[in-house]
Write a structure and sequence with these properties.
The protein has 3 domains: 3-48; 82-218, CBS-domain (Roll), CATH 3.10.580.10; 223-286, Histidine-containing Protein, Chain: A, CATH 3.30.1340.30. 44% of the residues lie in helices and 16% in strands. It is built from 11 helices and 8 strands. A 3-stranded mixed β-sheet has the order 1-2-3. A 3-stranded mixed β-sheet has the order 6-7-8, with helices on one face. Strand 6 (244-249) and strand 7 form a beta hairpin. Helix 1 runs antiparallel to helix 2, helix 5 (129-140) crosses helix 6 and helix 8 crosses helix 9 (212-219). 36% of the residues are buried. Pfam families: CBS. It comes from Streptomyces marokkonensis. InterPro entries: BON_dom, CBS_dom, CBS_dom_sf, Diverse_CBS-Domain.
């Protein structure tokens, strides 16, 4: 991550810091927040340099679903992908589902929004509590007087005329692919201010859902986890791995020791690719 990105992350973390002294529980929370923001900043940096394509755009929001939580991600790979943390199956509604049935579905699933799908399970939009509230507001009071009332009606009138999921939904939807990086999905969710993202295959068909809670749990990793993953990479890249030691402090990985320098640049690149690694210090001397 660049110095500018580090400063941006630190500034954001300070902005969220309380004015009173931190409790013993507050400092770890702030450290976790800095790491999460760092991962999002790294994903944004990759986008700006054109390393990875940006996802489709749209809007929507929800709370985490009540389906079983995904298994803890396997840490053998340096890069976590959406498929490692997404939840399946994902609740959805057909476009022709009536307004009241959509409301009942949200209540039953205990979520704030669900994807709307067509007959072939393609995601065509997202219908949320906000969309339903617009309908309910117009139903409760179809006419309001005065300039404020006219503005209110102008914004809600079209939305309030819908009677089905397809006519009430917000579109186009924001979706992510199962092969997308977790850090990129976090960037997408943060940029669009979404709590939940539908996961679609290359044909736009719904295959799962990933929530901000899932992304946070995957991205916020302690130094011990990062060290274990970095040591695994050392074992894979160096012919004599025991001559190089790994230490991690606040997400910064330091490699020390002596080794053949030939595979070291590739090793350093692999370690930098670990999600939420803040920096990598190369202190490996050539044999």
């Amino acid at each position: 991550m660049s110095d500018f990105e580090h400063r941006s992350v630190e500034t954001e973390a300070r902005r969220t810091a309380p004015g009173r002294p931190w409790t013993p529980q507050e400092e770890p929370r702030q450290d976790a927040l800095r790491r999460y923001l760092g991962a999002v900043a790294a994903a944004a940096s990759r986008r700006s340099t054109g390393e990875e394509p940006a996802p489709a755009s749209g809007t929507g929001s929800t709370e985490p679903p009540v389906t079983a939580a995904p298994e803890p991600p396997v840490r053998g790979s340096a890069v976590l992908h959406v498929r490692d943390v997404m939840r399946v199956p994902a609740a959805s509604v057909p476009g022709d589902m009536p307004f009241l049935e959509v409301a009942r579905t949200l209540a039953r699933e205990q979520v704030g929004a669900v994807p709307v799908v067509d007959a072939d399970d393609h995601v065509i939009g997202v219908v949320s509590e906000s969309d339903l509230l617009a309908k309910a507001a117009v139903m409760a009071e179809p006419h309001r007087h005065g300039s404020v009332g006219r503005l209110w009606q102008h914004r809600l009138y079209e939305k309030g005329q819908g009677d089905t999921a397809a006519t009430l939904m917000t579109f186009p939807p924001v979706t992510v692919h199962p092969a997308a990086r977790v850090s990129d999905a976090a960037w997408t969710a943060a940029h669009a201010r979404l709590k939940r993202l539908p996961v679609t295959d290359h044909r736009g068909r719904l295959v799962g859902v990933v929530s901000r809670r899932d992304l946070l749990r995957a991205l916020i990793r302690d130094d011990a986890e990062i060290r274990a993953e970095a040591e695994s990479l050392v074992g894979r890249h160096l012919p004599v791995p025991h001559t190089v030691e790994v230490s991690v402090e606040n997400g910064t990985v330091t490699l020390t020791g002596r080794a053949d320098r030939t595979p070291v640049p590739e090793l350093l690149a692999a370690v930098r690719d670990i999600d939420v690694v803040a920096d990598v210090v190369d202190a490996v001397e050539a044999i």
